[in-house]
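DM from R.C. (forwarded with permission)

"hey, sorry to bug you on a friday — could you get me a structure for this? deadline for the figure draft is monday and I only need the backbone to look sensible"
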Amino acid sequence: MGSIEKAIYNRSERLLGADTMDLLAEKRVIIFGVGGVGSWCAESLVRSGIKHLTIVDSDRVCITNVNRQIMATMKTIGMVKVEALKERLLSINPKADITAMQKIYTESTADEFGIENYDYIVDAIDSLQDKALLILNACRTKAKFFSSMGAALKMDPTKVAVAEFWKVKGCPLGAALRRKFKKQHIFPARKFKCVYSEELLPNLGQSHACGTAACLCPKAENGPGDPDLLNHEWCSSKAQINGSLSHITAIFGFTIAGLIMQDATAGGAR
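My reply, with the result:
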């Protein structure tokens, strides 16, 4: 590490040791979905010493993201999410290698990400179909894989937990994934850990659209990023938009980052 990075990671090195910090700097991580969970995960990893990070998301920053996504502010509304997050991450460590991909993980795009070349794969995708696909494909690689279950409709931080996928309890998203795999008779090739919470609160407030009826964001005629994704959004495809809070989404993201740090530093100085 150079002198700037040695200074940035002074406190991390005091805990982990110089050799472990060098090891962390070589690890390659890819995060799919940098919303309420993925954005905090990325932030924690870069602050902890991960230098090679790829962030994947198709959206632009919406005003409704501001309550729970780390790069979402009144100044970044309308920006491509991965570009806004990349800018923030580079402000933490200007020497970090951050790759921003404004893409959707689907059957047709899956080969574009080269997930087999990463040490760690993080799933923070909302879409059930795309999430299931990533789980199946990630579990066929040698990479360590961690997945976030649903973080919405929760408030109690003490109920956030980690479990192997088939042992996740009380999570509607986890249950829906298991039903999908059983119906298709296709299952993940290996076990993997998930962050989840059994808590499930009701929606109390109404969803007030800030733009059109189909989308919480105003429709744009031009803007940054892929023109084919200029007005791409997930809200209109959801049966229900659930409330969520930053302390829960952040705990989910930080927990996944912690699992990566724990694994990456195993056998190191500590």
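R.C.: lifesaver. The two ends are 20 Å apart (CA to CA).
me: no worries. The first strand starts at residue 28 and ends at 32.
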